[in-house]
């Protein structure tokens, strides 16, 4: 008998990608194999994101194609997974009536059962959130292509309730995963030849595992994973500024194979806006953390997320974001227009009152400002030598390869006899806004 075929498409964050790997692992045990062609599939899963309205619109458009496939072949089952499933629950089954199942991020163990119960128009939903589920013992099926970098999800959920954010509602309460299972997953990856691991969580640095009287915090967990082997390089994402402790910064500074790179979403440079966002820190606190990082890890790569045009944001408050960006000098930033999400604190209590054209103008302004800063940061790297993990053959020419430096900058260089997965020393000769170009030395 030929195996059943699963097509899975993932939207949104790395966490979602990591969840898709858990889903595939669960379904492989049910006899499914992956297909890269939706038209060949018996089962189509879309793992969705709700963070901004646009993310949901993209999914709504895309699933219309699956609706057509299902018209041609009514035996295909279509499931919506992830954050949109959790946010919209059964109503999604009414709105998109060709969908067979809607499954939230904590209900993936129930997938085999849900698949069995659907068909011939029977629709199923499981959007129960959990206080415990971490999928700890499920070994994810790696969907990455290069076999060099992998993600390990170490905690789930979020208890911060930032006023703009849908995540606490779609992913539930914070919970940490058993460190033993994290360490054994990391060792397994090393044994399979992986060289880089990114520890993942919505608030990775809030990791907290209690065992008897002992507490294992994120800094200690990171150190334990790093101690597995000097050949493994470690990253982590995403951090909340409230939990970037001195201990964590010192651990990064003192441990060679923990990358000198921190993604620290600031969201706004204005203390008043941060208060409205319920971020629980102000500009001074954030800048104090940045100074600590710069003092202890002088060349640390620093990146951020910024939301522009949040409720009531004035010109002066916007200006505060620009001055903060200038002061920090980020190497990279993800920048977004505020998008109101139904049922969040901001949606219920605050007016989304910054006009669309002002949001767009402010976004353009911070994007061009960031491009200048990124270019300036890259120019400072000319002449320096970086240790790079080779993870890609260049898109432009197979004579060139690329990889990332410890600081998370992309470097492109002539291949020579380099193999994927090698560590090489690369000297930067020139640069663009997004890339350092150099040669192996
Ligand atoms: N509108 C715009 N951007 C948002 N983000 C989270 N919620 C919203 C929203 N409602 C951004 C934040 C977060 C990143 C993952 O997405 O910057 O750090
Ligand atoms: Fe999107 Fe947030 Fe859900 Fe990730 S956790 S998929 S970013 S809404």
Give an overview in words.
The protein has 441 residues and is an alpha/beta fold. The chain has 3 domains: 4-126, Rossmann fold (3-Layer(aba) Sandwich), CATH 3.40.50.12160; 149-380, Alpha-Beta Horseshoe (pyruvate-formate lyase- activating enzyme); 385-440, OB fold (Dihydrolipoamide Acetyltransferase, E2P) (Beta Barrel), CATH 2.40.50. It has helices spanning 14-28, 53-72, 83-88, 91-95, 111-117, 167-171, 179-191, 218-226, 246-254, 271-276, 283-296, 315-328, 345-349, 356-380; strands spanning 4-10, 32-34, 43-48, 77-82, 101-103, 124-126, 149-153, 155-156, 175-176, 196-200, 208-211, 214-217, 233-237, 261-263, 301-308, 332-337, 385-393, 400-405, 410-414, 423-431, 435-440. Strands 2-1-3-4-5-6 form a 6-stranded parallel β-sheet, sandwiched between helices. Helix 8 (218-226) runs parallel beside helix 9, helix 9 packs parallel to helix 11 and helix 12 packs parallel to helix 14 (356-380). The relative contact order is 0.08. The structure holds 5'-deoxyadenosine and iron/sulfur cluster.
Short description:
The protein has about 450 residues and is of the alpha/beta class. It has helices at about 15-30, 55-70, 85-90, 90-95, 110-115, 165-170, 180-190, 220-225, 245-255, 270-275, 285-295, 315-330, 345-350, 355-380; strands spanning about 5-10, 30-35, 45-50, 75-80, 100-105, 125, 150-155, 155, 175, 195-200, 210, 215, 235, 260-265, 300-310, 330-335, 385-395, 400-405, 410-415, 425-430, 435-440.
């Amino acid at each position: 008998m030929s195996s059943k075929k699963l097509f899975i498409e993932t939207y949104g964050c790395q966490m979602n990608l990591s969840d898709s790997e858990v889903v595939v692992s669960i379904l492989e045990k049910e006899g499914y194999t992956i297909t890269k062609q939706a038209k060949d599939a018996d089962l189509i899963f879309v793992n969705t994101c709700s963070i901004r309205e646009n993310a949901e619109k993209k999914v709504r458009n895309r699933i219309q194609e699956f609706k057509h496939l299902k018209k041609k072949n009514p035996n295909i089952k279509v499931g919506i997974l992830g954050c949109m499933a959790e946010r919209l629950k059964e109503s999604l089954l009414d709105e998109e009536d060709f969908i067979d199942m809607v499954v939230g991020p904590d209900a993936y163990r129930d997938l085999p059962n849900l698949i069995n119960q659907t068909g011939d128009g029977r629709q199923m939903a499981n959007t129960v959130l959990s206080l415990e589920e971490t999928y700890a013992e499920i070994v994810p099926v790696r969907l990455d292509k290069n076999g060099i970098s992998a993600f390990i999800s170490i905690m789930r959920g979020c208890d911060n309730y930032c006023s703009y954010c849908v995540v606490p509602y779609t992913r539930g309460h914070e919970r940490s995963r058993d460190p033993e299972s994290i360490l054994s997953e990391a060792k397994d990856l090393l044994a399979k030849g992986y060289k880089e691991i990114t520890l993942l969580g919505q608030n990775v640095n809030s990791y907290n595992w209690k065992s008897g009287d002992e507490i294992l915090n994120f800094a200690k967990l990171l150190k334990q994973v790093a101690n597995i082997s000097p050949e493994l390089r470690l990253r982590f994402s995403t951090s909340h500024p409230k939990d970037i402790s001195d201990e964590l910064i010192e651990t990064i500074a003192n441990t060679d194979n923990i990358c000198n790179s921190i993604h620290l979403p600031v969201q706004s440079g204005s203390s008043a806006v941060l208060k409205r966002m319920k971020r629980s820190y102000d500009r001074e606190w954030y800048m104090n953390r940045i100074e600590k990082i710069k003092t202890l890890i002088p060349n640390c790569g620093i990146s951020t997320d910024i939301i522009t045009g949040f409720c009531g944001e004035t010109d002066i408050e916007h200006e505060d974001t620009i001055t903060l960006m200038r002061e920090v000098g980020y190497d990279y930033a993800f920048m977004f227009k505020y998008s109101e999400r139904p049922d969040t604190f901001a949606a219920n209590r605050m007016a989304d009152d910054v006009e669309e054209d002002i949001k767009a103008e402010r976004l353009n302004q911070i994007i061009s400002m960031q491009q200048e800063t990124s270019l300036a940061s890259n120019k400072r790297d000319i002449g320096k030598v970086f240790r790079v993990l080779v993870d890609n053959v260049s898109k432009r020419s197979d004579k060139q390869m690329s990889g990332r430096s410890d600081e998370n900058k992309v470097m492109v260089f002539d291949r020579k006899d380099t193999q994927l997965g090698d560590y090489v020393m690369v000297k930067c000769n020139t640069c663009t806004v997004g890339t350092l170009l150099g040669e192996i030395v």
